[in-house]
């Protein structure tokens, strides 16, 4: 599934970039993401992702890799992991682009994700909607951090 | 493979709620098991215990209740199909029950289980929306009643709290002079789309219309805009202009891409099937039964 969102914040592009480039802090804005930590500075990170769809819980240790960075304008990362007990694999690629807008800035989020395994039996629709909710909540939390 | 679990067999709803309160999400309610056992065997759900509510007294009752039809949560689809109270008060429900899933599911699957599992590709919740359904939830602390539209919040998600048990659903029978239809379409085991409509006709004109669409989005929906358009129309108007209502429904419906098809496809199918369902209902209101048939379609 693919989710694209534009998020306007009152903070300057430099301020927004500073929060995004603090990867553990940025990743922690994603709901269900905890224990974000740096493995190799500005290259590899780890985080734990927990999500719930109705009665089903997903718990995935994620490996996050920065694949492209052009400070202070864009950041691309890939994240993947596997929930052993559910037999589900998660893979995401996310691109974040910062641009000035008015007195503040605009963040463009382009996320593309895949869930493989039995969880796919639930249907793409459930997962697509959940992914949209996650990105929207990420935007709300990030805005709070950046503007707060 | 089914993993080991403890099986609780409480004697009362209060006792069942007590167990759920203690064990939280380590426990799952078990009635017919037609949905639950599938996700347990697939390993998608892991619980330490099941709380069997099949034998709880009174929970399978079907009866009149203050002008409503009350269906107990553990009543099976098969029981609903044959219950005289359902035929007398909400006959469309009895006919739909006959077409839920397959005969094995209908024999053991329960109405409460179907609603509480909240699979978006299901028939009952869509049809129940036409009867202003309210679900009753019981816990040690007491009871509450919720409109079905507030109970089902999304795919597989409801507003039931961990310690609550869905005990019954109450349906408000239609006023006299109402004709309804449920049309579902699907190539897979579960329906791709379900449309339920009802027209209340008095003095030759539509005085009330109900349209619900299910399976195409995260949860079934009533479409007030499309319903409103039918007000005051004659049955001849309905037959001539059903397409307009279908188009309005298609524009308003919340559709998502899934393994059954794209959102765009589902919106277009909503347009087609709202029109077809309206034609069936309008025919019935005029005392005619449509014999038009379409592939992979069940007309109830």
Q: How would you portray this structure in words?
A:
The complex is a heterodimer of chains A (148) and B (300). Helix content of chain A is 26%, strand content 53%. Chain A has one domain: START domain (Alpha-D-Glucose-1,6-Bisphosphate, Chain A, domain 4, 2-Layer Sandwich). In chain A, strands 1-7-6-5-4-3-2 form a seven-stranded antiparallel beta sheet. With 148 residues, chain A is of the alpha+beta class. Chain A has three helices and seven strands, in the order βααββββββα. In chain A, strand 6 and strand 7 form a beta hairpin. Chain B folds into three domains: 47 residues, Uridine Diphospho-n-acetylenolpyruvylglucosamine Reductase, domain 2 (2-Layer Sandwich); 110 residues, Uridine Diphospho-n-acetylenolpyruvylglucosamine Reductase, domain 3 (2-Layer Sandwich); 109 residues, CO dehydrogenase flavoprotein, C-terminal domain (Enolase-like, domain 1), CATH 3.30.390.50. Chain B has a five-stranded antiparallel beta sheet with strand order 4-5-10-6-7. A five-stranded antiparallel beta sheet of chain B has the order 14-13-12-11-15. In chain B, helix 11 runs antiparallel to helix 12. The relative contact order of chain B is 0.12. The chains are: A alpha+beta (148), B alpha+beta (300). The interface between A and B is medium-sized, with 19 and 24 residues.
How many E strands of chain B?
15
Which quaternary structure do these chains form?
heterodimer
CATH level 1 name of the largest domain in chain B: Alpha Beta
Q: Give the second-level CATH assignment, the architecture of the largest domain in chain B.
A: 2-Layer Sandwich
- In which order are the strands of the major sheet of chain A placed? 1-7-6-5-4-3-2
Q: Give helix and strand order of chain A, one letter per element, not per position.
A: EHHEEEEEEH
Helix proportion range of chain B: 25-40%
- Principal-axis shape of chain B equals globular
* CATH topology value of chain A: Alpha-D-Glucose-1,6-Bisphosphate, Chain A, domain 4
Distance between the termini of chain B: 37 Å
The helix/strand series of chain B, from N terminus to C terminus, equals EHEHEEEHHHHHHEEHEEEEEEEHHHE
Strand portion of chain B: 25-35%
How many helical elements of chain A? Answer: 3
Number of continuous helical runs of chain B: 12
Structural class of chain A: alpha+beta
State the low-pLDDT regions of chain A, or none: none
Largest interface: A-B, 19 and 24 residues
Shape type of chain A: globular
